[in-house]
Amino acid sequence: MTLDAKMHIDEGTATIRLSGELDGRSAPRLNLLISDAVAAQVRRLVLLVSDVTYMSSAGIRCLLFAHQKLPRGAEIVLVGTRQEVAETIRMTGFDRTVVMQESVERESAEA
């Protein structure tokens, strides 16, 4: 399965809706969107991941890329993370760097 990714930027927040598998083949697509968000000088990155069925180490590297490129103090939020994807994030310790939450807030519904 491929990765589908769509981004919406509004008031300093980039919201990216992802569906499919986030692996070595699809990670460059997400990194490109993250770069676009950084260029737009967002302070918050919301990833809607409820439809992400698999995340490899390449997906974790995307999160690390976002953490490194976004301004200091910027927030990275993963919304609707499936248990198997959340476990991958927890095993790497990256759950201490991102916020994982169950549901969407106001701007996330627009992506």
Can you offer a commentary on this structure?
There is one protein chain. By secondary structure, the chain is α/β, with parallel strands linked by helices. The protein has one domain: STAS domain (Transcription Regulator spoIIAA), CATH 3.30.750.24. The protein is 32% helix and 33% strand. The protein contains three helices and five strands; from the N terminus they run E-E-H-E-H-E-H-E. The chain has helices at residues 27-39, 57-69, 83-92, and strands spanning 4-10, 13-22, 44-55, 75-79, 99-101. Strands 1-2-3-4-5 form a five-stranded mixed β-sheet. Strand 1 (4-10) and strand 2 (13-22) form a beta hairpin. Helix 1 packs parallel to helix 2 (57-69). The longest helix has 13 residues, at 27-39. The mean pLDDT is 92.
What key attributes describe this structure?
111 residues; alpha/beta; Transcription Regulator spoIIAA; 5-stranded mixed β-sheet; 3 helices; 5 strands; 32% helix; 33% strand; globular
Radius of gyration computed on alpha carbons: 12 Å
The strands making up the biggest β-sheet line up spatially as 1-2-3-4-5
Q: How much helix, percentage-wise, in residues? A: 25-40%
CATH homologous superfamily identity: STAS domain
User: How many structural domains can be distinguished in the coordinates?
Assistant: 1
CATH architecture designation: 2-Layer Sandwich
* Continuous helix count: 3
Beta-strand percent range? 25-35%
| Mean pLDDT across every amino acid position | 92
Q: Name the structural class.
A: alpha/beta
